[in-house]
Amino acid sequence: MSTPTAMPAAATLTLSPSVTEHIKLAFEQQKLSRPDIGSFESFLTTIADQDASAPLPLENETNHPISHYFISSSHNTYLTGNQLWSRSSTDAYKDVLKRGCRCIEIDVWDGGSSSSSSSSSSDNEGKDREEADVNNLASLVRRGLGRLRSRADSDVPAPAKVVSATDSPAADNEMMPTRWRTESGRDEPRVLHGYTATKEIPFRKVCEVIRDYAFRTTDLPLIVSLEVHCSPPQQEIMVEIMRDYWQQYLVPVPDEYSDTTPLPVLETLRKRILVKVKYSPPEKAASQKTPATKRSRAKSDTSASTDDDNGQADTSKKGKICAALGKLGIYTRSYHFHSLDQAEAEIPTHIFSLSEKKLMAMQEECHGALFKHNMKYLMRAYPKGTRVRSSNLDPAPFWRQGIQIVALNWQQMNAAMMLNEAMFAGTGGWVLKSQDYRIEQPDTAPPRRRRFDMSVKLLAAQGLNVDAKSPPTAYVKCELHVQSELRAQMPKDGKSKGGEWKRRSASKESCDPNFQGEALRFEGVEDADPELSFVRIKVMDDVSYQKDRLLGWACFRLDRFPRGLRLLRLKGEDAKANSAALLIESDLSYA
């Protein structure tokens, strides 16, 4: 029986017999055409080196305005699970920052006795309305559980139980969390998902973690997206805390700052924190609206802006952003979205935040205008409020509209997060858009696309499910995420189906399966933008009578897909490399 091959000291992976045998065969074949190939040991070391299967290098210039980049982004970063009753934790911020996320979100509410139903100044257009739908669903669940408990109590007498706020998603809304106080006894803002049973954390603790982890992985700038539900006094405390912890990182105000100030280039913002917050003009300016602004306000009657939803047209009410907080939003000033024709849409430093639902409607109404806007100005997309289990939209269709910040739920590893990992691998979380996405074309047409053929020959895998009592029934699934036609619209459910090509292998029952060169072929794939198309490879366990289990995965941008003989180091559901590896031989050719 063959024994595992012990690698030289430079390598860190012990290879299985079947993997070693395939590498030997490849070495002998290459030696026929390349006599100077060297020794088998050096060839083996090269193949087993984890850098050999890394995505191809990417030229990522940093001398462009920040609107010319895609940015790795997180939605409701503080949550560790679902959107209704999961725990909030500063560890969630540590995790995404260590993984290269460059736009994080903080939902901030009054500390103390103020409830999470206080007035809101959310800078996410439509988010409160969608969350209200979710909260209605949560309320129905709570009432249903309450009726079931009542029936049970009437049938079987039971001793009284002390209810804890952490017991279940059915915990009452009235059971508000404890106050956060400094040593002086002052109530301070807190971070939580409002109107839900999620557990809170102090805003101060979040700011401390951001200070400590913001630039551990990269020195490229971090955007902190604030969704503010605080009263003006609590907003002043927010500013005090942020300045206390982030003073050395906050972007300084330019000497001459106005509505015509251009966006800075990425290189000038290294080790800087940009605060994204809704902009409230000074009182005098607010009372003297321009005709264009008045037109925007008139259109907003049917929009889902927070102030309109909550009947807060009076800007002196609690929902207004105070001047001190608003001044922190220098290059990322958020405005309520009404239309792409509103006056603020031409301010270089503006940013609109729109839900996937709103963006899909806009795609049908003004496809070219949306794409054109995002060539010059920042935009953020976030998941619709009904994604209560922290599922995700497919980011690729939104990137193809030029949207720089596509905020995803990082709580679980799903297809969207795999694409996000592939998009930003080794980049520091900022990826320069292709020229077609930065420079306006004659008719604002989407970028040129290409036709290609691809094959993935499966040789062998190893280290699959090594801790299980029995070996898995392993198979490989390969998917292409490609826009299937020019001007293809974003799918109505936020998930692209028409652009997916799928192939799968036969199953092998083994922790170290030998796939014997089975080939997965994709021929005549058309209209592909290599920079926004993706190859996703998953090794699955074929489980009877239940959902197949993920054993490991790898994902690449099409233009960064490594070709030839590669030993792919697979990642697990935590996005970290595990003990699994897949030996493939791939080929990609463009017509």
TrEMBL record:
Catalytic reaction annotation: a 1,2-diacyl-sn-glycero-3-phospho-(1D-myo-inositol-4,5-bisphosphate) + H2O = 1D-myo-inositol 1,4,5-trisphosphate + a 1,2-diacyl-sn-glycerol + H(+)
Enzyme class of the recorded protein, top EC level: hydrolase
This protein's UniProt keywords: Hydrolase, Lipid degradation, Lipid metabolism, Transducer
Superkingdom per UniProt: Eukaryota
Biased composition (Low complexity): 113-122
EC number of the protein: 3.1.4.11
Keyword Lipid metabolism: yes
Region (Disordered): 110-136, 151-173, 282-316, 489-512
Gene Ontology molecular functions: phosphatidylinositol-4,5-bisphosphate phospholipase C activity
Function according to Swiss-Prot or TrEMBL: The production of the second messenger molecules diacylglycerol (DAG) and inositol 1,4,5-trisphosphate (IP3) is mediated by activated phosphatidylinositol-specific phospholipase C enzymes.
Protein name: Phosphoinositide phospholipase C
Organism this protein belongs to: Hortaea werneckii EXF-2000
Organism taxonomic ancestry: Eukaryota, Fungi, Dikarya, Ascomycota, Pezizomycotina
